[in-house]
Amino acid sequence: MSRPQDPHRPLFPFGNPFRMISSKGSRLPERLLSLLIAFEETLAERLRKLIPKDKNEVLRLSWMKLAMDSLIETHSSVKNLITELELPVSDWDEKWVDVYLDISVNLLDLCIAFSSQLTKLNHGHLLLQCVLHNLDSSSPKQFVRACSSLDSWRQHISAKNPRVESCHSILENLVQSLDLPKVKKSAKGKVLMRALYGVKVVTVYICSVFAASLSGSADKLFELNVSDTFPWAPAFCALQTNVNGEVRNVLGCGRVIVLRELEAVDTSIKKLYPMIQDGLEPVEVEEFKNSVKDLGKQEEKLSEGLDLLTKAVDGFFKIVLTGRDALLCNLRENGTASVVGSNVEQIVGR
Known about the structure:
70% of the residues lie in helices and 0% in strands. By secondary structure, it is mainly alpha-helical. The protein has one domain (26-348). The longest helix is centred in the last third of the chain and has 49 residues, at 285-333.
């Protein structure tokens, strides 16, 4: 069936983004339209910045930090949008509150899992420091200790983390919540739900990349389908295609260590280990010194990358937690906590 030409259509190079949320013949007020356009254009720009220029950027701690920083900015933006919409919590539909609270709990669980794995990887830093300390000497006794520490490091790094292994089920719960809730009367509600949809899609996807990267399992990597009616869809699809392709390529090779900074450390160790295991030959002394220096350099890069990424994950945890707490406080202050019933009580108790 043909539809009348919309005078605002040129504003949407990827099609009318309100086709999915507006009933036939209805239109959003100009102010709300402008707010949503600005939000989605900013989201698209953030996604474009995450598209790797080179495949080696993928599975690198620096890219993961960039992705987490982008999530922090996106979640801050949606909080600002809620303020600009002038939509008090007392006007929120019960379904919106339930969905928001459920999602926030799942995101907090993911952050805890990611932080747990990053802390685990950071503990390996101590073992490598012991190795470097023991290699200051050319004593066979010190070499034996260094070999023992390197063996412990490999076992520590390759050990499974139950919290990261549980991320898949959490992500599946989030995927099931991606559908847009039906909004019949509230124009502001339509804008809010549409903005939250974009935030949810991007958040679920980036978290799935984190889960796959930190667990070394492609099973935790998601392939999300997004309608081209959203102006940020092309950037999202390009990001997903580039990143998923490289992650699957790396994991398909059977590599146990997938993070590139970890791999660089492991490569240095593989070169150094035979020298200290079998004892140095006079001709190997210079090569040995260079190998120890390289290990120290790669270990420093790994430690710095892990520290920066850990801070970024902590920052995301805090913004999700403060947003959730602010909503619960508003519900209590407005006397609307009873509206959402037992669901709020269950989530408050977690």
